[in-house]
Specification:
By secondary structure, this protein is an alpha/beta fold. 59% of the residues lie in helices and 14% in strands. The strands form 2 sheets. It has a 7-stranded mixed beta sheet, with helices on both faces. It is elongated and about 75 Å long.
Length: 333
């Protein structure tokens, strides 16, 4: 218990290692099918039961095992599940026929089902909400945020649509770590919209507290509409613009056109959600138009992120990435 409080990261390593073994066990048997068929002289039906017995028992017992953890303690159930899973894995290796292997796989499923909900519950206990980070589709692009900041080295960065601040914090963290001479501006009403949902004042207050303690020396939160913030930013000054506001075609097209004069001769724009085609999400539509006119490259994961070189003198790394996309478009995605 004391170790868990003083070194939660070590506990996390143990938890995730156990969880990894459970996930691995759902697929690894597929690799061993030829060897099992030859070594144990199994039929196709028996092979299917070796595969499915584990998954079936695992799925059926998950909810019950989670409730048992609530009643008798997650750490206790985690230890029991780990013991059962380990013993069952050893029995799988010692099995002499298909029947023994199937029985051992059932036991593995029981151990895995006990382990899984305890792992997630213990992690939420070890790391309270303020240490886990906000939920966001932007997490998949955070490494790129650091790369693009180093590549562009913007004098001014503007983000339109910040919400809980995952993307903006990634940009600011890159400024701090790389010691860039960048002035950052986040523009948002922090009231929400039809796509991001509407939310209360706590979202803004939580992010402002996080932001002010780390980035206030070079960053400003502009609580305004995108149009209202136009007068706060000088024309031709923005080297990196991130658009992530309302995602209808009319809204994003209006934001892009309105803020285009703010971009410098080195200007680069990022458009999020270019790979979302649901409902009235239509950033993809504007992206299809813009990519025909400007050097660009794109990412399809985490709802998609488009990168446009809009200035007359784009940063070298951005130009090179766009050129590689033209040469090998599938790899660039």
């Amino acid at each position: 218990m004391a170790q868990a409080r003083t070194n939660p990261w070590l506990v996390l390593v143990v938890l995730t290692s156990g969880f990894f073994m459970i996930l691995l066990d759902t697929t690894i048997v597929n690799v061993a099918i030829p060897a099992m068929s030859a070594g144990l002289n199994t039929t196709l039906d028996q092979i299917l039961w070796v595969l499915n017995a584990y998954i079936l028992v695992y799925a059926v017992l998950l909810i019950t095992a989670g409730r048992l953890g609530d009643l008798y303690g997650q750490r206790n159930l985690f230890a029991i599940g780990l013991l059962i899973f380990t013993v069952a894995s050893a029995l799988c290796g010692l099995s002499q026929n298909a029947g023994e292997l199937i029985a051992a796989r059932v036991l593995q499923g029981i151990g895995g089902a006990i382990l899984t909900p305890q792992t997630l519950a213990i992690i939420t206990t070890l790391f309270p909400p303020e240490r886990r980070g906000a939920a966001s589709a932007w997490w998949g692009h955070v490494p790129f945020a650091h790369w693009v900041m180093r590549a562009v080295r913007p004098r001014v960065l503007v983000e339109l649509g910040t919400h809980n601040g995952v993307s903006y914090a990634a940009f600011c963290e890159a400024v701090a770590r790389c010691q860039l001479n960048t002035r950052c501006f986040a523009v948002d009403t922090w009231k929400g919209d039809a796509h991001a949902s509407f939310y209360d004042e706590r979202v803004y207050e939580d992010f402002k507290a996080f932001h002010d303690a780390r980035y206030a020396a070079f960053s400003t939160l502009l609580r305004a509409t995108f149009d209202e913030a136009l007068e706060r930013i000088e024309d031709g000054s923005v080297d990196l613009l991130h658009l992530d506001g309302l995602h209808t075609y009319d809204a994003v097209q209006h934001d892009f056109v309105s803020w285009l004069p703010k971009l410098s001769s080195h200007g680069v724009a990022l458009l999020h959600d270019i790979n979302v085609h649901n409902g009235d999400f239509a950033v993809w539509r504007l992206w299809q138009e813009l990519r025909e006119r400007h050097p660009h490259f794109e990412f399809h994961h985490s709802y998609g992120l488009g990168v446009l070189a809009l200035g007359k003198e784009p940063p070298e790394a951005i130009s090179e990435s766009a050129a590689r996309r033209d040469a090998t478009p599938e790899r660039a995605r």
